[in-house]
Amino acid sequence: MVEEENIRVVRCGGSELNFRRAVFSADSKYIFCVSGDFVKVYSTVTEECVHILHGHRNLVTGIQLNPNNHLQLYSCSLDGTIKLWDYIDGILIKTFIVGCKLHALFTLAQAEDSVFVIVNKEKPDIFQLVSVKLPKSSSQEVEAKELSFVLDYINQSPKCIAFGNEGVYVAAVREFYLSVYFFKKKTTSRFTLSSSRNKKHAKNNFTCVACHPTEDCIASGHMDGKIRLWNFYDDKKYTYTCLHWHHDMVMDLAFSVTGTSLLSGGRESVLVEWRDATEKNKEFLPRLGATIEHISVSPAGDLFCTSHSDNKIIIIHRNLEASAVIQGLVKDRSIFTGLMIDPRTKALVLNGKPGHLQFYSLQSDKQLYNLDIIQQEYINDYGLIQIELTKAAFGCFGNWLATVEQRQEKETELELQMKLWMYNKKTQGFILNTKINMPHEDCITALCFCNAEKSEQPTLVTASKDGYFKVWILTDDSDIYKKAVGWTCDFVGSYHKYQATNCCFSEDGSLLAVSFEEIVTIWDSVTWELKCTFCQRAGKIRHLCFGRLTCSKYLLGATENGILCCWNLLSCALEWNAKLNVRVMEPDPNSENIAAISQSSVGSDLFVFKPSEPRPLYIQKGISREKVQWGVFVPRDVPESFTSEAYQWLNRSQFYFLTKSQSLLTFSTKSPEEKLTPTSKQLLAEESLPTTPFYFILGKHRQQQDEKLNETLENELVQLPLTENIPAISELLHTPAHVLPSAAFLCSMFVNSLLLSKETKSAKEIPEDVDMEEEKESEDSDEENDFTEKVQDTSNTGLGEDIIHQLSKSEEKELRKFRKIDYSWIAAL
Amino acid sequence: MAAGGGGSCDPLAPAGVPCAFSPHSQAYFALASTDGHLRVWETANNRLHQEYVPSAHLSGTCTCLAWAPARLQAKESPQRKKRKSEAVGMSNQTDLLALGTAVGSILLYSTVKGELHSKLISGGHDNRVNCIQWHQDSGCLYSCSDDKHIVEWNVQTCKVNKWKGDNSSVSSLCISPDGKMLLSAGRTIKLWVLETKEVYRHFTGHATPVSSLMFTTIRPPNESQPFDGITGLYFLSGAVHDRLLNVWQVRSENKEKSAVMSFTVTDEPVYIDLTLSENKEEPVKLAVVCRDGQVHLFEHILNGYCKKPLTSNCTIQIATPGKGKKSTPKPIPILAAGFCSDKMSLLLVYGSWFQPTIERVALNSREPHMCLVRDISNCWAPKVETAITKVRTPVMNSEAKVLVPGIPGHHAAIKPAPPQTEQVESKRKSGGNEVSIEERLGAMDIDTHKKGKEDLQTNSFPVLLTQGLESNDFEMLNKVLQTRNVNLIKKTVLRMPLHTIIPLLQELTKRLQGHPNSAVLMVQWLKCVLTVHASYLSTLPDLVPQLGTLYQLMESRVKTFQKLSHLHGKLILLITQVTASEKTKGATSPGQKAKLVYEEESSEEESDDEIADKDSEDNWDEDEEESESEKDEDVEEEDEDAEGKDEENGEDRDTASEKELNGDSDLDPENESEEE
């Protein structure tokens, strides 16, 4: 049984991936992106999240590789710290406390001990680029207060700052100005775009800037879609050429590593590669799905990646072929459909890409796929009124899917379409069964299937603002040519021309409740007779649902005036009501419980109750500062067994909710570490690399040596400790490079340990060799450790000096341990 | 084809390709195919997650594979250790996959990074690796091989421990639920104590190499005696070419060596999955995939000795639909089956090994045989495109039903309102009027004579139309209905016999729903029919249900300027009637041809309209609901005399006709209110 702690709200997915430019690791194996308070490390090959680096207490705003050690990563955050990470193991190495809010981070290989950050001083919208000197210190937390001012009055976005020509200058753009600061001369040149006010150039403000890696060339993107390439001859003299393909604002620019080509992207969702900076020599990668927000290039030059507004990162090969997609929960647009659970795949279903329904796996926090409902080419352009997928519902255990799409250009021009999809088991996919044009005269407000288990005929109800609700049933449409089924309208109901706002079926499907503004009407689902009406005169009904299981005689309605009513269907009387401004009301499919989220000025509160008693089972205040928009109960595969009464509602289902900023949250009783750090626990399996040609050269040589040695030793019936078993060596090889003491300190010990003494006949007495002896007892066993090669280690030992003293406790202990080891046998040399 | 591929070289090698579901949520399915590729599929959306080709994939093909238990932990600091011990199951990320090869090496592949993690060679096997098992907690890996040895690999410390497991090749391994014992099997089954590597028990085993071993219970059946972790547990074994799966029990005394019970299946087991029973009452559920591509499901409470082999509770087969008459349904082999965590559904992997389909099937224990019909013909083409974009396009073909406003089914059908008694009465009446066949024949004779005469005199359009409607002859109808001549239409309509009016209207409605171009022509006809025969129509008792579709159609078509068109239609009708009444009444209406045309197939309409003619006075109030304005009565009276003289209504056809219908059969409450 799970140990019970407090129920906490945890973020369970759908965090933003496209907030800042993604950063590639030096070998292009990993890609890093900021995601809320975390930095995520993805594999570029498998699209899998390898690590989540957590430690920041506020939004992470920038990440950069450490230019001096490409196995380390800097990140800065609004919490005022810069953190240094070892991304391979997911370990926080160091924290530099700057103190003020940091909005972006830049590193420069030339500026060894300092990084550049954007901070805002005094007034809220004035931002400065400053360089921060990172002090060398052994402690885990270091204060870095030594700021030196570089540029003032700059744009907050890191896209508007670029370092160029191996760090000779920094370029910043804002509105109509391009300022270039030369580090050596410490001068700033400012260029203003001419005639920025007249009509012809009305939209030529700067949007982004990129600098050529080796030449004095700056590329700037503009609102009107032009890219200007500035070439400098002097401080004041410059020429620029114009590249124009984008019809809308240029969102981001990037030079390739060698600087031969320039990449640009924008709302057209086409990645354009300009070769040799000429207008006619360009290549395209079209149909990337959504607006390109950021472009980045791997240091090795073999990969590009684009971050898109629909929360995805596309990894693109050098030859402009998309190779992988890292897709989070699509959150480009507002969610109209609400949260649903696909009964078949148990995936969360909601609006996805434009015109698509996305299926999102909650277990693996990964998008499964997008289902293209509208099936029309999406035109990325500002101000176009698109067809929106407004409603969707699953029926009959996932066999039917109803979708409603709508496009409203003007008040009177409404286009409505309802599609009913059947799940075809043979082909394992949805097939359009019936398409209904203009099912109603006005917007459809609610859509529900009758999900009763014994219902012989699938039934769907649509409620609309035109004052009617329609009942659609599945009928046999067979004729002599084919067998077919199709949906037809069976009944049209209305109540005094009020707008129908909600509808829902009772659990057994015998009753249909339709709310008409303030009035709830109950209809018999067999004869479609109006059975009774409830009216509380407490404002329009916002949510309506029947109780379930033992509480099926109750009907609940939440009104806009903040009243929650519960009617008894047997006595046709109001059972109880409560003053609660309900935003979300969701029944649990597996129990009688109903979750309601109320909205107050402070935040959102959760109430879980049974309709039979007005006293809530569980209350949690302040689950979110934002407005909660949708919620859903997700049945658990394996029921939990919480015994305490307050948590019992979580036994069979889990409650997920979506806030206005579209983060998906849920409730968990697990302790924070467990929930948040599944990925930091990793396998410490020994990594032995596959054989390489290098290995063959060295390895063979070694083997021969070993064999020779063995032969000689066997003759003498003495077994030498194999070099791999010497702790000094294994410690040296297996300890991460950044935590090792200086090479000078280790060198003598290391070399000593490698030396073979000729007088090691007493080798068996070496204390650490106990297990060796053990194994000799069984004849068949022999032990040989794999040869491990750690190329990086040797390449990075130079850095060891910087961080001699910052060793974690366990590592200190290890070091201490091998100080204690008896090296007397070495002395015997 | 797929199943036989793995073991084609060696008759005693187990059939089937090495494959496994990832532990816990079964998010992935790894399959090492015979071409040496390792493919990992996502089970939720059937997408190829990654593909890996070991560098030595041709010489050392993969013979077995095993997922590591969800991420092994790093050595925890003492502070962490104080926390709960249940952290093991919490991390649900699965990473390492161990692959055993035909040459004896073991590869550790990281599915998260998509690259080879390590290669375990030294001190290992020098022959084909037959089975790999991960230890659930310690991070150790056990492998067995044709070289008769069992090797324990500690992947954290890289320690290798090798011991001789059998006198022949060791083909299968299984670790006990408490992690302290190891089962190994060549032909006989041995239970080892892991710590000392000593044999604890012997079991008889099978005649052929054992291909699968599995513990089925984690708790002994009788809880009275203290449980030492192994005694009393059951385990299961399956062997090559053996249609029996044996169940063994670890007994405290070392005597019993034979199987406790056995399950029988149709062919050699290829893949076995089971749900562990946690208490005594809960049955063990077992899914066995056989080489013939079937899945057998067993549900049994393991409790002691049973002589007779048990047969399966349920068999699952998959077949192609077999379209048309030629192709017969073909079976689709099932490659693997795994129970989902809720134990109520099964993940099935079927099709070919290079493009398998993964489906979650809910289990229904009632049915003894399930045959799923699946169409995998479109699965053969590799789906590279969808792999990148993750977009699925549901099928939208022309077979889908399309409902637009006006088409029946878009709006609720108007159900016949008049009470039943009325109809019964009228039927009786018609029954009373029954005439002898002789009389009928006589009447028919007269009728034909008359017709013949008229045919000579007038245009043949009415006759053609009547015949067309009766015979439903498309050609004939087309010939008549596609005229554009307004006068001709008018005359034709005027001469139509009354009993054909309703069929004509229905035919027109059908055509109006069709292509807009033809609808333009039909509107002319409709207008004529409605102006000329308004009076007849208004007498019909069941007009509302009969023409409801037409009404809804018109209602939806004129929706844009509804009120304007209502007004326009009414005015036109008034003016037509006024002008018509001003004309002479001298011209006799030639429409009334026969008083007695009795045709059996259309008897109802016939009788209806006769009756309606006779007692239109009586029927009046019932047919036309409540509010019929006096204007409508005018219309009828005058309409009888109207002889197609209304030329002025050339324009605005549909609005006019629309209105006329409104006048006739006021269905819409809105109209009522307007008129008042």
Radius of gyration of chain B, in Å, reads 42 Å
Overall pLDDT of chain B: 72
Q: Identify the overall geometry of chain B.
A: elongated
From the N-terminal CA to the C-terminal CA of chain A, the straight-line distance is 60 Å
Q: Provide the β-strand percentage band of chain A.
A: 35-45%
Q: State the end-to-end distance of chain B.
A: 80 Å
Q: Specify the structural class of chain B.
A: alpha+beta
How many DSSP-defined strands of chain A? 57
**Tell me about the biggest sheet of chain A?**
5 strands, mixed
What oligomeric state is this? heterodimer
Which key phrases capture this entry?
heterodimer; A: 829 residues; mainly beta; five-stranded mixed beta sheet; four-stranded antiparallel beta sheet; 8 helices; 10% helix; B: 676 residues; alpha+beta; 30 strands; disordered N terminus
Describe the structure in your own words.
The complex is a heterodimer of chains A (829) and B (676). Chain A has 8 helices and 57 strands. Chain A has 829 residues and is mainly β. A 5-stranded mixed beta sheet of chain A has the order 6-7-8-9-13, with no helix packed on it. In chain A, strands 1-57-56-55 form a 4-stranded antiparallel beta sheet, with no helix packed on it. Chain A has a 4-stranded antiparallel beta sheet with strand order 2-3-4-5, with no helix packed on it. In chain A, a hairpin with a 5-residue loop joins strand 43 (500-505) and strand 44. Chain A is globular. The two termini of chain A are 60 Å apart. Mean pLDDT of chain A is 79; it is low at 671-687, 712-721 and 759-804. Chain B is of the alpha+beta class and 676 residues long. Helices cover 29% and strands 25% of the residues of chain B. Chain B is built from 17 helices and 30 strands. Chain B has a 5-stranded mixed beta sheet, with no helix packed on it. In chain B, helix 9 packs across helix 16 (653-664). Chain B starts with 18 loop residues before the first strand and ends with a helix. The model of chain B is unreliable at 1-8, 72-92, 418-432, 447-458 and 602-676 (pLDDT under 50). Chains A and B meet through strand 30, strand 33, strand 34, strand 38 and strand 41 of A and strand 4, strand 8, strand 12, strand 27 and helix 2 of B. Strand 34 (366-372) of chain A pairs parallel with strand 29 (391-392) of chain B, so a sheet runs across the interface.
